[in-house]
Design brief:
single chain, alpha/beta, five-stranded parallel sheet, disordered N terminus
Length: 212
């Protein structure tokens, strides 16, 4: 299954882009926009090796959607090092190479690479051990999690989405904010950079907008 094709039936990238813009406006007075920007900044600066951004989830919930969005952002922002590699618990025998990367890849993680663990539920012990080993080998460990203390303890930086937070946002929404912020390093204009990429994304999907 391709990350792009894993999107829900009827998925429209324009809806996602508009959703992120609206979400940022809604949360502009809360810590969430800056928290996700800071997290994305760490992800950019820690990932310098080609194919070095490794995304891994849990056996029952692999981060297909975030992989697809980060792939889009890396392309739009011209940051190829942020093109993610989806690390899978088990790949189908006939899966193409880019969907055949298994947990063994984490055993080769090194400095200049980033392991991003996306786990709303508790991370399995096997994943925690591999993340810890990757950290000892020099890789940066990041997590978008549901408050798993063991995972937070392994990660260099964690973005925890918990019910008792100051502002309640969904786990899915936080992933959207992180992916949108990931490409901002290509344009130090911050919010303007996001709006520029949003416009280019809409142009790509629906044709150039007509000037009035």
């Amino acid at each position: 299954m391709d990350p792009a094709s894993s999107r829900p039936s009827g998925h429209d990238g324009r809806v996602d882009a508009a959703r992120v813009a609206a979400l940022r406006d809604l949360l502009s007075s809360t810590p969430w926009v800056e928290r996700t920007r800071g997290f994305a900044r760490t992800m950019r600066t820690s990932t310098t090796a080609p194919e070095g951004l490794l995304l891994v989830g849990t056996p029952d919930d692999e981060p297909w959607h975030l992989t697809a969005h980060l792939t889009d952002e890396a392309r739009l922002a011209h940051l190829p090092e942020l093109t993610p590699t989806l690390v899978r618990w088990q790949a189908e025998p006939d899966a193409p190479p880019h969907l055949s990367v298994t947990l063994e890849r984490l055993e080769r993680a090194k400095r200049g690479e980033t392991v991003l663990v996306v786990a709303e539920e508790a991370a399995p012990e096997a994943l925690l051990q591999r993340a810890w080993d990757a950290r000892k080998s020099g890789a940066t460990i990041l997590s978008i999690d549901g408050g798993d203390e063991e995972l937070v303890g392994v990660a260099h930086e964690a973005l925890s989405v918990v019910e008792n937070d100051l502002v309640t946002v969904s786990f899915d929404s936080v992933q959207h904010l992180v992916s949108a912020a990931a490409g901002e390093g290509a344009n130090p204009g911050g919010r303007r950079g996001f709006r520029d990429r949003l416009g280019r994304m809409l142009d790509t999907m629906s044709g150039p907008r007509q000037e009035r």
